[in-house]
Each structure stands twice: as C-alpha cells, then as structure tokens.
C-alpha cells in the first residue's frame, strides 16, 4: 500500500514539477538495496542566494495544496471506494481491502433482506389483527342463537314460545338490563380453588353488579353457576336464573356465559315439571336441586335430559313459612353446595326452629349425616356453606352488616363472628357460594351481584 501511495504522490509531483520548474529541477528514479522504488528530486542551485524566498514559498504552497488533495484521495481509497472523483483508482488493487469491502456489502444486503422480511411479517400481523377485530365486532352484534332449543319458529335467534319474550306476558317479560363493566380478573377462576385450599372465611369483598331486572318478577330469585358440571351440554360458564316471584314458578333461564347474562340474552328457557318454592335452589353436577312448592319434597332435575332424576321428602323439615329466614319468603329449606358436596339448611319441630344441617347424596338425595345447631333460623337473614362450615348473615336490609355466626360440622362447634358484609341494595334474598369461582352469588332487590371471598387456613 505504501508503495502504491508513494507512486501516486510522486508521479503527480513529477508531472507538476516538470510543467512548472522544468528548467530548474530534475527527478531520478532507481531501486534501493531492498528492491523498493526510490525517487530523488534535485533542484539546481549554484548559489544559495539565487533562490528567492518569495518564489520558494509560492512553490511550496502549491505542493502542499496538491498533497492535501492527494491525502483526501488516499483516505477515500482506504475506505474502499473511489470517492467519485474519476481518478481511476480501483479498490481491487488491494486484496485485503477488497475482501473487507465485499464482506460489508454482503452484510448490508443481508440486513436489507431481514428488514424487508420483518416489514412483511408486521404487515401480515396488522392484517390478521384487523380481521380478528372485524370478526369480534360482528359476533358482538349477532343475536344469541338458540343452540339447545329444538323445534318451533325462531325470532332473532330466540324461541317464539319463550315466555320471556312474550310482550303480552308481563309476568315473565325480560326488561332492559343494567350492565356494569367487570374486570377480566374477576371472571377468570383462580387456579387454587380445590379442597386442599379449604380454610375459614376471612373476608368478603364489595358486591359487583352483573344484572338488574326491572320487572316485578325480578324482585327476588336465584342465579348461579355450576361449580362442577357433568357432561358436555353445559359448562361452568353457563349461568342459571329463576325469578321466584309468582304463583307458579317453573321457568329456568339458561345463559351461555356471564356476558350474555348481563346483556339479558338467554340461550334457552327450560320449563320445570313441578313449581319452585322460594330462593333455596342450587345447581351442582349438571342438576338443578330445588324444593317443590308447598312441600318438604326435594327434587333433582337433570339439566341435560330435562327430566326429574330423583326426589326425597326431607324428614320433619318445616316448609311454607314454618321456619324461614328473617326476611320471610318461604325460605324454610335452603340448598347449598361447597367443596364437600351438597347440603340442606332447614329446621324441624324437634329442633324448635334451630338450624339443622344435613349433607345429602347428590345422586339420590339421601341424607348422609345431620347436625343440629343452636342458631335460630328466623334470627338470621341468610346462610351458606364453605368448606363444611355454615356461615350466617345478620341482616338482609342493613347496608353494612356482618356474617355473625360460624358452625363447623367437623367439630360440631358454633362460634360468633364479625366479618363485614354489605347489602348494597338493601334487600338481600339469596346467597350461595361457588367454590370453583370462589365467589358468593346474591340477589339483592332486583340486583344480581357477586362477592369475592378470601379464605385462610383452617385451625388445627
């Protein structure tokens, strides 16, 4: 490289010198002992004083100017390009420089290809996102299809025979729903809802509204989800609802999920073979369990086959206003579900109005075991079961009340409690626990709400 640069520089200098000072200077070229080309530049000067300083300075200025230009040309050559000056210098003269230039050019080409590929992927993702957004919007605007309804004319995806949509039937007409925005975290069950996590109830959160019924039939009722569905017809997302105001309550509304429930679009309406008494029904393992009107008879109604699967007369149980909760409503027999199974909460003449708890076989409704507490049923507003423990609520109308008693079936011991509880709408007529979602479901004066609960480890 040095040989090449020296040659360029001195050749240019020689041409310049011959053109400007041909009569005063000479250039001689020869090889040195190492074989390198050596140049000798000689200026004739018989007397030192014959070289005027002004002439020497002008010549040196010209040489420096040309050297500056050549240095710029060499710098461009080192960078691997000609610089566009048209000097005719080719980068291929240096093999190492040519290799580096080729490598950089290849890497630049590869980077350009990667950039184009990423740009294409981004465009594809944007296109797919747009398609999904359009699909979601179209699904939101679609009416609810009657997936489980057979026969009969259809109107906007709903059965024409559905009494909930009969404008002439004021008793069971679905009115406008009041919807509240619910965080996704509230709708997704936690991953630790199993028996090994059973413990004592530590706290109850504020109520979260999912639906408001405006017709008189929605004053009070039952709404819940199956914590342990059986079969593939319905899932634990299916919402079940019964409006219990009326002389002959038989309608069971099924909603595909909590969102359709909030919107007021049932996918099906089942007509029960025998009427329902009050708000003590529950859903468990693919069956609806309820008390037959004006009797102590319990019925297991299979939701898949839509038929009665079992029935049992609960021995000595009070009914139709003998031993209700403090709010009345013929709440003599209250069915409940928790991590340990199916329960009946009621009283008998032998217990003299004190709460009796019986664990039932979910298939046959036979009684496995019973406990008699010393909590008078008509002094508490409602009750529910969690991990084999009975919890009672002090008031159904007080805005700020408490869960005031706990009865443990494992030890047979009752104790007082003071867990804060809110009746936001001042008339709470139904309260059930769902261990799969770890929530309480309540019906509070036309409003269907849930409460998050927190459990702690059971005392040893």
Protein model, in words:
It is a single chain. The protein has 460 residues and is α+β, with helices and mostly antiparallel strands. The chain contains 5 helices and 25 strands. It has helices at 2-20, 53-78, 95-141, 184-187, 258-263, and strands at residues 25-31, 37-43, 154-155, 158-159, 199-204, 208-212, 221-225, 239-243, 251-255, 268-271, 282-284, 287-291, 297-302, 307-313, 334-338, 341-346, 354-360, 367-376, 382-386, 389-393, 400-408, 413-422, 428-434, 439-444, 447-457. Strands 5, 6, 23, 24 and 25 form a 5-stranded antiparallel beta sheet that branches. Strand 24 and strand 25 (447-457) form a beta hairpin. Residues 1-23, 48-55, 81-89 and 145-194 have low confidence and may be disordered.
Instruction: Report the C-alpha radius of gyration, rounded.
Output: 46 Å
Instruction: Count all strands and give the number.
Output: 25
| N/C terminus separation | 89 Å
Helix-and-strand structural type: alpha+beta
Give the overall form.
Answer: elongated
What can be said about the biggest beta sheet? 5 strands, antiparallel
Quick check: average pLDDT?
Answer: 78
- Give the H and E element order: HEEHHEEHEEEEEHEEEEEEEEEEEEEEEE
What is the secondary structure topology, with strand pairs?
Layout: H1 2-20, E1 25-31, E2 37-43, H2 53-78, H3 95-141, E3 154-155, E4 158-159, H4 184-187, E5 199-204, E6 208-212, E7 221-225, E8 239-243, E9 251-255, H5 258-263, E10 268-271, E11 282-284, E12 287-291, E13 297-302, E14 307-313, E15 334-338, E16 341-346, E17 354-360, E18 367-376, E19 382-386, E20 389-393, E21 400-408, E22 413-422, E23 428-434, E24 439-444, E25 447-457
Antiparallel strand pairs: 1-2, 3-4, 5-25, 6-25, 7-8, 8-9, 9-10, 11-12, 12-13, 13-14, 15-16, 16-17, 17-18, 19-20, 20-21, 21-22, 23-24, 24-25
